[in-house]
Design a protein that fits this description.
With about 650 residues, this protein is of the alpha+beta class. It has 20 helices and 24 strands. It binds adenosine-5'-diphosphate (ADP) and magnesium ion.
């Protein structure tokens, strides 16, 4: 039975504009069980011929039947599968993967085969093969712990792992000393004796003598084909298993294969720990900042929302509005000035109003017992606690009578209690604001911080006292109005505006001088601000994730270049483009997933720490965690694709030759 039948095979390389004809019509047939040595001067086309025999290269013309099947025009994937299933390669440079042990190197072709050997069986087969080539004691050694001769034995064992039909060796002893060379030839001879067909390129006439047939090439032509004595008898051995070449060539995608890609990727990452850790770090920082920044943004948003809704939803705020042009206030004198009388009038004349609280605010120095504190001072009416849901936590609020009589009484916030009174009960004590003594009659309930402002750092006094005694103002800063019926908000709001315009005799075109807003409006304004703020934070984090991604791409590109020979080897052993593509994409995705997961942990702990130590309100949402994780996987995919594509497109022979 013929294993190889070449009919007028030609090969021409095209380098730039020049055609380099290398093989000029090679016709040749090799039978099962033969041991063929190919000899010839350097450059005579031996390697080219062997690469064509090994399906690593395609001929420019002619026909090639491997075990009866025409293979010279098959697509790449089919060739890869045939290489894996039927061919074994032994190279001059051994081409072992340095990060794998001897036995793992031997088992490498199984990654790309469809055989479903379980791990234990495979390991046993691998060690049996190493035993067979005399390396039974070196199973777990790495290539750099083996001599050249030993490495070549490992390579031979590797070529045998799929029970090949044909073993191809290109100057297998070229890098070895005479003694090791003789040993390798001896092993090949034994393999041939056990029925394996071998085609070997060699320079050494001595070594060629081991072969049963010596073919000599000169300038791409066969110039002699001599059969040695005795050995040819094995040709057509009846016991040899029948190979069904037609059954191969259909790569089967299965879960085992995918699991194998993962194994290979992990090993590659582990073998270059510093580099992997650095690329993981890039993603980690991106994801962690994404999580932390989104948590801070979200927390601020919720805090603002909570604060605003605690103010009550049927509140209207009436303010004078300076006429504006292009966002700049013009002619300050033209602004409407609201007075206490306006507040009283609105209460009486606009229907649907429940309570009214005019406001006059300022800042001032407060003194108690020799201690000074600068705080905000709000003058308001006796309705304040009802409108703001803030009944004093201690003591009482001032009455309407006290407001009218400009009583010198004050309520203090928690911060004041802490700073001026050392946390002692302040009720009944006298504090001095701008040289006026006020008696503390109550303590305001705790409100917490809203954004950057401490809401507890304030003092509340009657509005009349504030205006006439303390600040010397005749106008109020704003008037808060509580509406009886939430649904009537818009109507009341319009009623107030009309009434004020009427009171101040404003013409219709100065409508916008009175600003009446409800809490929903204010809430929208603030939440759009905080939203913009969290988008800003998010985009900064996103950029850092992007930078991490580019870092990964860079590293993957370097790694592709660095591992060009590895890629060539894997292809020779039967990896198809998809296998290589997946391996590299999985590598970058694994980096990103590890970075993503650790980033989520780090980001969450940073936000929790911020919440605990700095008392920032943060909120880690499931959305942000999912988003961060998805992003990191996407980064891995997107930035991994290009290097992976680059790797998968490498030509196996060129890759194997890469220095
Ligand atoms: P051998 O193995 O017998 O020393 P090769 O088969 O490697 O020779 O090369 C035969 C000829 O083909 C040489 O002249 C070489 O320059 C040429 N050759 C080999 N590969 C290429 C290539 N990829 N592009 C152009 N020329 C090539
Ligand atoms: Mg060569």
């Amino acid at each position: 039975m013929k294993i190889i039948e070449l009919d007028n095979i030609t090969k021409t390389y095209h380098t730039g504009t020049i055609d380099v004809p290398v093989l000029h019509g090679i016709s040749l047939s090799i039978a099962r069980g033969e041991f063929v040595a190919i000899m010839g001067h350097s450059g005579s086309g031996k390697s080219t011929l062997l690469n064509i025999l090994g399906l690593l290269d395609t001929p420019s013309g002619g026909a090639y039947r491997l075990a009866g099947r025409e293979v010279s025009r098959l697509p790449e994937d089919a060739l890869a599968a045939l290489r894996n299933r039927f061919l074994g390669f032994v190279f001059q440079q051994f081409n072992l993967l340095g990060r794998l042990s001897a036995v793992e190197n031997v088992l490498l072709p199984l990654v790309y085969s469809d055989s479903r050997k379980d791990g234990a069986t495979a390991k046993r087969d691998g060690s049996n093969l190493l035993e067979k080539v005399g390396l039974g004691q070196r199973l777990l050694h790495k290539p750099n712990e083996l001599s050249g001769g030993q490495q070549q034995r490992v390579a031979i064992a590797r070529s045998l792992v799929n029970n090949p039909l044909l073993l191809l060796a290109d100057e297998p002893t070229g890098n070895l000393d005479t003694k090791s060379a003789a040993e390798i030839i001896h092993i090949l001879k034994e393999l041939n004796d056990s029925g394996i067909t071998i085609v070997m390129v060699t320079h050494e006439p001595d070594l060629a003598q081991a072969a049963s047939r010596i073919i000599t090439l000169e300038d791409g032509r066969i110039v002699s084909d001599a059969r040695g004595a005795g050995n040819a008898a094995k040709a057509g051995d009846a016991e040899a298993p029948v190979y069904d070449a037609a059954a191969a060539g259909h790569p089967v995608a299965n879960t085992v294969r995918i699991a194998n890609y993962f194994g290979q990727s992990l090993r590659a990452l582990l073998s270059n720990k510093t580099r992997s850790v650095l690329s993981i770090l890039g993603v980690l920082i991106g994801v962690a900042s994404l999580i932390a920044m989104m948590a801070v943004g979200k927390g601020a948003q919720e805090e603002v929302k909570k604060n605003i809704s605690s103010l009550g939803s049927n509140l209207l705020i009436v303010r004078p509005n300076s006429p504006r042009m292009g966002g700049v206030a013009i002619e300050a004198g033209a602004a409407v000035r609201l007075t206490l009388a306006d507040a009283d009038d609105i209460r009486e004349s606009v229907p649907g109003i429940d309570k009214v609280a005019p406001y006059s605010s300022g800042r001032g120095q407060v003194v108690y017992n020799g201690k000074n504190w600068n705080t905000s001072i709000d003058g308001t009416s006796a309705d304040y606690p009802y409108m703001r849901n803030s009944a004093p936590s201690k003591g009482r609020f001032f009455t309407h009578e006290e407001t009218v009589s400009r009583a010198k009484v004050a309520l203090v916030g928690q911060t004041i209690v802490r700073e001026l009174f050392d946390g002692e009960n302040p009720i009944g004590e006298y504090i001095r604001i701008k040289r006026i003594d006020f008696q503390v009659i109550g303590v305001l309930p705790e409100k917490g911080a809203s954004g950057w402002r401490d809401e507890d750092d304030c003092i509340i006094i009657p509005v009349n006292t504030a205006m006439y005694r303390l600040m010397g103002k005749e106008f109020v800063d704003r008037i808060d109005v509580r509406v009886t019926d939430f649904d009537a908000m818009d109507k009341v709001s319009e009623g107030i505006r009309q009434r004020i315009m009427q009171l101040h005799r404003l013409p219709e075109e100065r409508m916008s001088s009175v600003d009446v807003r409800n809490m929903a409006d204010i809430q929208n304004t603030i939440s759009s601000t905080t939203k913009a703020f969290s988008y800003l934070l998010g985009s900064i984090a996103f950029i850092s994730l992007l930078v991490g991604g580019i870092g990964i791409m860079n590293i993957m590109l370097v790694s592709v270049t660095e591992r060009t020979r590895e890629i060539g080897l894997r292809k020779a052993l039967g990896a198809n483009n998809k296998d290589i593509l997946f391996q590299f994409i999985i590598e970058s995705v694994v980096i990103c997933v590890i970075g993503g997961l650790t980033g989520i942990l780090l980001g969450s702990s940073v936000s929790l720490t911020l919440a605990r130590v700095a008392h920032w309100s943060t909120k880690i949402s499931l959305v942000s965690v999912t988003m961060a994780f998805t992003f990191s996987v996407l980064v891995g995919l997107i930035f991994g694709v290009w290097p992976a594509k680059k790797a998968s497109r490498l030509n196996p022979i060129e890759a194997l030759r890469y220095e």
